[in-house]
Amino acid sequence: MQNRAILLANLGSPDKPEEGAVRKYLDQFLMDPFVIQLPWFLRKLIVSILVLPKRPKVSAKAYKSIWLTEGSPLIILSERLQQSLQQQLKIPVRMAMRYGKPSIEYQLLKLAKDPAVNEVLFIPMYPHYAESTVRTSIEEARRVIQQHQLNIKLNVIPPFYQQSDYINALVESAQPYLQQNFDHLLFSYHGLPESHITKSDPTGQHCLKQADCCRKTSIAHKNCYRHQVFRTTECFVEQAGLGDSKYSVSFQSRLGQAKWLGPSTEDTIHDLASKGVKRLVVICPAFVTDCLETLEEIEIQAKKHFIEAGGISLVLIPCLNDHPAWVKILTKWCQQSEWNNNI
Q: How far apart are CA 304 and CA 309, in angstroms?
């Protein structure tokens, strides 16, 4: 423990809620081969011709609607978590972003200058495995260590989607909202193209190719985002004591024309409103930190659509952010000696 440092890694944010900054951020994000899983030329064609001419203006407007006086909500909330965790630990705690600032490279190079540090406990801030989140973050950290020949051992915390500590913290943070009068709880997870799911299946014959595949035991579940979000939901529901008719699962944040995991959150909230749900509560367990996808996509846009469809209220349960229960669990994990690095 004495020679260890902690590096938390989240997705990232543009520097400013302005078109130019958003364009730069989207270009870096979408050109990642783990995000758009196509050859470089096709990826460049899609990003340059179909996305960057129009998307930055739309996204900049969305960012402006949630931007804090201090800056990006994702960055500010991540810094608060880092500071809270640092208060509990006597070893260095840093926060990095896969895209944007501060980068994984910047933080690793900074940590490598400390002669007391020869191990970094790397914590991708994603409960569920996906190549576009967990793997790309780990590969970037490994690239930096190899390229700069850093004398650092990388110890990685694996996806924690059904880890009891995480589930307990998630339920505890949600309790004040679950104790209020509501009709239905919607678990809205970030979506993925179905091709990402099938590509991560080592058997090539299980994911999305067998009926009820996420409930049938398979080695594919180790890297299956869809299975893992369903497991998180099952664990949460059991811990919180929710009835089967009291919740639903959907997927948000679709981009492009590929077939994505469904049902979509937008379709689901309209369907719930049409069935008489008036008071909807939404939780987004794919994120541990509130960001554009929760604060704008759910709390602003989804709320608007739900009320237009006949609902009375839509309440977003905040992400774990720097909730004391989450800080306590991270502190415990950071003090654990070894983690499975076979990711």
A: 9
Which residues of the chain form CATH 3.40.50.1400?
4-160+323-334, 164-316
| Separation between Cα atoms, residue 53 and residue 67, nearest integer Å | 23
Using alpha carbons, select from 245, 234, 250, 233 the residue that is nearest to residue 188. 250
The parts of the chain modelled with pLDDT lower than 70 are 1-2, 337, 339-343
pTM score > 0.85 for this model? yes
Q: Rounded CA gap, 275 and 253, in Å?
A: 24
d(C-alpha 325, C-alpha 81), whole Å: 11
| Euclidean distance between the first and the last CA atom of the chain, given in angstroms as a whole number | 22
Q: Which CATH number describes the domain made up of 4-160+323-334?
A: 3.40.50.1400
107, 109, 110, 111 alpha-carbon torsion, rounded to 10°: 90
Q: Does domain 164-316 have CATH number 3.40.50.1400?
A: yes
Structure tokens at 338: 């070894």
11 neighbors 52 (Cβ within 8 angstroms): no
Tell me if 183 sits within 8 A of 278, measured CB to CB.
Answer: yes
The pair of structure tokens assigned to 142 is 């490994």
